[in-house]
Amino acid sequence: MSKRKICVVVTARPSYSRIKTALQAIKDHPKLELQLVVAASALLDRYGSAVNYIVNDGFEISAKVFNVLEGENLTAAAKTTGIGILELSTVFDNLKPDMVVTIADRFETMATAIAASYMNIPLVHIQGGEVTGNIDEKVRHAITKLADYHFVASEGAKQRVLKLGEESESVFNTGCPSIDLAKNVLEKPELNFDPYQKYGGVGSSPDLSNGYIVVMQHPVTTEYADSRKHINETLQAINTISIPVLWFWPNVDAGADGTSTGIRSFREKFKPNHIHFFKNMEGEDFLRLLVNSKCLIGNSSVGIRECAYLGVPVVNIGTRQNKRERGNNILDVEYDSSAIEKAILHWLHNPKPNLSTVYGGGDAGVQIANLLAESPLRFHKTITY
Amino acid sequence: MSKRKICVVVTARPSYSRIKTALQAIKDHPKLELQLVVAASALLDRYGSAVNYIVNDGFEISAKVFNVLEGENLTAAAKTTGIGILELSTVFDNLKPDMVVTIADRFETMATAIAASYMNIPLVHIQGGEVTGNIDEKVRHAITKLADYHFVASEGAKQRVLKLGEESESVFNTGCPSIDLAKNVLEKPELNFDPYQKYGGVGSSPDLSNGYIVVMQHPVTTEYADSRKHINETLQAINTISIPVLWFWPNVDAGADGTSTGIRSFREKFKPNHIHFFKNMEGEDFLRLLVNSKCLIGNSSVGIRECAYLGVPVVNIGTRQNKRERGNNILDVEYDSSAIEKAILHWLHNPKPNLSTVYGGGDAGVQIANLLAESPLRFHKTITY
Amino acid sequence: MSKRKICVVVTARPSYSRIKTALQAIKDHPKLELQLVVAASALLDRYGSAVNYIVNDGFEISAKVFNVLEGENLTAAAKTTGIGILELSTVFDNLKPDMVVTIADRFETMATAIAASYMNIPLVHIQGGEVTGNIDEKVRHAITKLADYHFVASEGAKQRVLKLGEESESVFNTGCPSIDLAKNVLEKPELNFDPYQKYGGVGSSPDLSNGYIVVMQHPVTTEYADSRKHINETLQAINTISIPVLWFWPNVDAGADGTSTGIRSFREKFKPNHIHFFKNMEGEDFLRLLVNSKCLIGNSSVGIRECAYLGVPVVNIGTRQNKRERGNNILDVEYDSSAIEKAILHWLHNPKPNLSTVYGGGDAGVQIANLLAESPLRFHKTITY
Amino acid sequence: MSKRKICVVVTARPSYSRIKTALQAIKDHPKLELQLVVAASALLDRYGSAVNYIVNDGFEISAKVFNVLEGENLTAAAKTTGIGILELSTVFDNLKPDMVVTIADRFETMATAIAASYMNIPLVHIQGGEVTGNIDEKVRHAITKLADYHFVASEGAKQRVLKLGEESESVFNTGCPSIDLAKNVLEKPELNFDPYQKYGGVGSSPDLSNGYIVVMQHPVTTEYADSRKHINETLQAINTISIPVLWFWPNVDAGADGTSTGIRSFREKFKPNHIHFFKNMEGEDFLRLLVNSKCLIGNSSVGIRECAYLGVPVVNIGTRQNKRERGNNILDVEYDSSAIEKAILHWLHNPKPNLSTVYGGGDAGVQIANLLAESPLRFHKTITY
């Protein structure tokens, strides 16, 4: 019997980290054939070249889709999505997948959702049903309404997808595959590599043996003009703290350049000797880095999700993760340098929180592969009310 | 004070009919400036050139967007949407509207919704919240999740949009603007023009003075391969009926050519002398034609909507209008020639049904214009649960 | 040793007729692998579905590219070309051809030329160097400047390509592959099929046994507004002639609808009983039809090219074939009904002209395949002066 | 009488420098209205934001076109051109220019040429007819064949355009507008600004008062894989020279990142204290910097063109400027660090060359504006042989 062809479209480095164990489980499943499409910023050097990690992890790439239109404005995000539809529809025509999988809620994932649903290919959405309170939320719930299956990461998310009118036999709480990786890491948590040597980057290389913090802050799309101001508050707080800092550059987004420019300008002006800047890091190494850190600063979803399971303290800044379900490892602060500084100091002087399984127990990848193998192939649905 | 700029994107002839009174009310409103964009099949000769009616009705067109990619397959629908995003984002960049309005649920309306929402322009969706049970339903509810305001056409639709998690202050049951036209027509219902002379078309020109029926049947996207078979059932039923028939060609859709080919082949083979074929007709003329007909056959939403208010009997074929709220003017039948014939005979020998205001009372256009003038300009929302 | 991969992009029915024997020779060549891409109007029903003939002739299609943007204006031609580049670059990325072949001078062939040359794939141009005097000429010579090899159809064309600064080792006069088909047909010239039965079409079916004429007239792009007027002159001339007429619909082009509308309107008005209309015809059948006809009317290049070799008289209307090399089978006339009528009468009452090898001796396909197999793979060139 | 609308499309910083005085002359001409479209890398921060200089120089921008598709491969160049056609055809539809002007030979200028010529808008090409011997040559001569008017920069270029079969009344040797700027600069040649202070940049800030050299080296498209190797030879030569160096980053091109990565890696490794890196510089300031330098190193066309008129010595590396007409200010060397070093030392120890008017006498801008005002509006041409 021929295998069911599962086409997964990865459009960004964080999406790859989030889906990696599911990809492996699909690849290993006797009834499934993985068709991996790498697109958008996942292909680009200045957003961390997820494609290199994918290849190194032993996945074969079925198609590459270059669709990122350069431009420092929101129009470019719309056009990138339009080009994505043009390109992905050709890819789906060639690969003829039985199902298409799209991940989370970045703006360009809409291209995957539209191409697949318009071509009557059953569409699976990973990590719908969550709430945050920015543009991503429009995209996320719109994709839910285009998708035929929903593999969500938490009980709250499942309830929300059902309320959106999806049929109960199409919604499954698998937990988040990123927790699978976190589980692996927790089994051997020691920092078993030298971050400077393995990942290069720029800036000083402070000694990490007495503790360090990690920073990862992305621009927030709907507050485009403010992204530089936001990053400055964080930079100011970090500048006053003497503990070593490992800082990760933001992903692509309209506004990315406000954030990036702020960081570059700070570096030129203050030449800080306690901060090292990385472009990116392979997923497990990054988690291991977090497990051994004092805390994570910024607005990355890693703080909400993997850090809950890992028990890593987080200073969560601003609105980007608003309303997401969370464990007790989060201190929420506004874009305010003194609040940020105070929260960091709290975690430096208090014990780590307990771990939480709110985002899954570490077997999401296998659950997803099994569901993909067994679910009926259908692309016709109606609202339940 | 400068007027609020309202950009309405019309992509098909039926959408124009449905929004016309709102366009007029926007144009007439002292606080609003209308920016009318005509796109997709609304510009094309073989789908009825809505653009000509628009110009004749005295509206000024701010931009035309050609984005229909030819091709007899579903991929073309996806690519048409992708091209639509590329083009409309440029249009919005140029026109700088304060709000964008998109109508109903054709596949290409998603391009309007994505371009506007990604560019942080408040998006208004007309006629969300309805149910039918085909691909249109995915598009319709996805647009609801992208839109900031919802002007719906019935109480059922309003309840459904609220259940989808939209805030109650963003949802308004204005009724459908197409009922505004129906109300005008009911005030002077006489057939005051000669359809053959005014609209040309092909085929015989049977005498209409002793009654006639009207046919309008569109292909159903998700049943692409079957569209020719479906139309054949209708053609066979019509062929056995001797009363004059006025037949309207279908709109563009993947599958349109199955329907069109069926009709052409029927004409060549049977050379029927009781049928006349029209490409299209100006909205009010069409409603007047319906009021004076014995019944409407097919799957057009006009049967569900305007005909409810007009009290025109309808034989509704197949799944296209499944689950829509309806008055008591509807007889539902399957794709089956004898069932279709039987239902037609029913209406030929029974009294007309009473009119119903399920889709509004005839002031939707004015309500919509007032709401556009007074609603806060916002593009940031969150789900209510 | 692996075979050299030759990617041929066919974008229209006439291009296919013109390249068919070369495709066969490439397919049969021991050192070559044929990658056949079918694009643009060659895929579309209303332009004769060349794709069906291609499949029936036993060719395997490597990729289909839908890039025709609907719209009754010149802008659509530009956008169709832009979309073609987007799509074809993906196709070339997937197929990784060693050489790309583009045919003649239709506007959308520029997409093939740009995608290949920008991607550093050696580009072969079939039938450059000719002159006509309309927009096609800009495209044709621009492609010459992008191409690495030139397989031209006549000695005059070869001299012109050399004057354009191309290196002499890159220019070869192979003759036109369409003449290869003509040669086959001349070996068994009898009309061995019933055109009405085999190709359907619409209109009357006059008896052909006492002679008939053939009409094929395309709109001329740079005279867009005039295309309806032009076709009317021809229609008027044909209307006055009583001999049976076999009329072929025009190809897609900006302006096509002017021509088509003219023909449709004429049919409705005059209901002519000596004319039959075909959408298209398989190449060899069409040539056999011409060999047995009294003459060909219109502006098709078939008149200039195949008819020279076949000795078929031609009434060539207007500017489309201006300046092309020609045999003595051509009478040139302007867009003028009486001139057209007079020229037709001339050919009906005078003997047929001798055949001419100005466009080749019937072995172009084999010559082209051999050149593709043996020419160095290079994509870097400079002008010779 | 209404003014003739001249639409000039600028796609890159160097193109702007090259056309600036013509833009001013068009703006000032009583019979002309300037429509300035800024597109492609001219809009992007990391390629020098030509758009900022354009605004600062007082030009009003009629439309911005974002069409650069990110991707480190040649496919992205093809797709950028395809998107350019889609966008520019909309722009021309809106602006309705009487003539369109495209500049030189960058790959994306083909988008301007195709959109304008397919839409029957008279196309003017600035700086056709030159020779270099790389991909640019295909683009340049192909645009000549699409263009209706040719305003060339040298007598050799004029002769070449005529040989390409263009009519003599369409070809004018105006000289290069960049020489107009050079003429202005020569009238007041003193270095009247502090480059570090005015333009920022990174790296050391060596004292310039005892002489300095300038470096500007672009990747060569058809030698993509080698771009990093090429830049390394230059970096090695520069590293052995102790005189201050002002280095300018390359423009966007497939391969740009090979060059950029080489430079970044060199900086990290050698931390050179005699080199300052600039992203870009306003045209006149850059020329003034050159006039006061010891010599220019690299492969910029500024070396061939403006430096001829300015009498600035040049070490021209590699094939990019192959075969261009040149004054006696050029020393040509291969990609070889010792040859580069030797050539630099030659110029450091020998007198400056005399100036040359091979690329014009400094009134090109005014000549171009006058020709645009007086030339017949035509878009129909034929080859002269």
From TrEMBL, chains A, B, C, D:
InterPro entries: UDP-GlcNAc_Epase, UDP_GlcNAc_Epimerase_2_dom, WecB-like. One of its GO terms (molecular function) is hydrolase activity, hydrolyzing O-glycosyl compounds. The keyword Repressor does not apply. Pfam families: Epimerase_2. It comes from the Bacteria. NCBIfam families: NeuC_NnaA (TIGR03568). This is UDP-N-acetylglucosamine 2-epimerase (Hydrolyzing).
